[in-house]
Amino acid sequence: MLVRTLTVSVVLSLSALASAQSIDVTSALRLVEGETHGFDYEYDDGVLVSAQTPATSGAWNETRVADQVDYWGFAVGTATADEQSAVDADALTFDCEATASTAGNHFSADARAGCSFEVHFQLLERVRYSADFFAQSTLGYNTASVTLALEQGPTLLAADGDYGASETTLATGWLAPGDYVLRASTESFAYGTHAQPDAHVSSCVGALHVYHPLDYHMDGDVTRRDRRDFRRAWLIGHPSADFDDNGVVNAADWAAYWAAWLAY
Ligand SMILES: [Ca+2]
Ligand SMILES: [Ca+2]
Predict the structure, then answer these.
(1) Tens digit of each residue's pLDDT (9 = 90 or more) over 156-196
(2) Relative to the alpha carbon of 257, which ligand is closest?
(3) Do 144 and 99 have their domain in common?
(4) Ligand 2 geometric centre to CA of 211 (Å)
(5) Contact 102, 110 (CB under 8 A)
(6) In which domain, by residue range, is 242 found?
(7) What element of type H or E holds 155?
(8) How far is the CA of 51 from the centre of ligand 2 (A)?
(9) How far is the CA of 120 from the centre of ligand 2 (A)?
(10) What is the per-residue pLDDT across 222-234, written as a single tens digit (0 to 9) for each?
């Protein structure tokens, strides 16, 4: 009985260690939506499709298409919202694209498509991170943006693809324990009239990965190679050896790394 109790406590402490660098999701909302509308002589109608999930973990791959055709068989417009995303313990990934187009067969027609990926999470321990955000849209009333922010504080990282812009944001560094929110959203609008079709697209793609502080190469595993190469970087004063993230590389950084290594 004593042996069994010991085994359980060992398993518990290992799992506590394994979750030290994990993303602890408090709430999430992922959404795709498409909408079209057409107006003409004796015609006024629309289509709305959407899907969403509050799931706080796992993959979510959804496509919704509003593809409107009028009573006489003439195309009005199409709105397509496509999201492929995943919420994992060590990564948040998203690939969102919204396309909206009108066919030019009616007095007026409009289409709107949008996707969003919003995850609120806690970090219980300080982590290394890497972020790769991309956002872009065609010129018009289209938006695409990605932000990582403190829940009660400033935006830390952003990629802005609003109104025809395009931006890639790559970053690595440290995130302190605390409450964060990652938001990626994209929305496209098309508006057309007779013989004047319109088409727009917006997208945002990216990932936020977190790693154990000792994982110098940020590949998901802590090995002796991490320790060796951290030591080499520290010896030449490379910024990647600033283990306590205070802007200087000095004896305290190696001392902290070594202490963390011994405790790992
Ligand atoms: Ca590693
Ligand atoms: Ca330092």
Answers:
(1) 999 999 999 999 999 999 999 999 999 999 999 999 999 99
(2) 2
(3) yes
(4) 18
(5) yes
(6) 221-263
(7) strand 155-160
(8) 46
(9) 29
(10) 999 999 999 999 9
How many angstroms separate the alpha carbon of residue 262 from the centre of ligand 1?
Answer: 16
pLDDT tens digits, residue range 192-220? 999 999 999 999 999 999 999 999 999 99
CA–centroid distance, residue 221 to ligand 1 (Å): 4
**Separation of CA 253 and ligand 1 centre (Å):** 18
In a domain, 11, yes or no: no
Answer yes or no: is 7 within a domain: no
Domain count, the chain: 2
- Dihedral (CA of 214, 220, 221, 227) sign: negative
Ligand that lies nearest to the alpha carbon of residue 214, given by its number in the listed order: 1
Residue 1 is predicted with a pLDDT of 38
Asked if the structure places residue 112 within a domain, the reply is yes
Residue 216 lies in a domain: no
Looking at the structure, do residues 204 and 242 belong to the same domain, yes or no? Answer: no
Structure tokens belonging to residue 94: 């998203």
pLDDT over 60 (residue 125): yes
- Does 190 share its domain with 61? yes
- Whether residue 106 is found in the same domain as residue 230: no
Ligand nearest to the CA of 174: 2
Q: List Cβ neighbours of 213 (8 Å cut-off, separation of 6 or more).
A: 21, 125, 126, 127, 128, 174, 243, 260
Q: Calculate how far, in angstroms, residue 211's C-alpha sits from the geometric centre of ligand 1.
A: 9
For residue range 64-74, what is the model confidence (pLDDT) as tens digits?
A: 999 999 999 99
Pair (198, 236) in one structural domain: no
Ligand 2 center from residue 97 Cα (angstroms): 40
Residue 215 makes CB contacts below 8 A (sequence gap 6+) with 128, 221, 222, 226
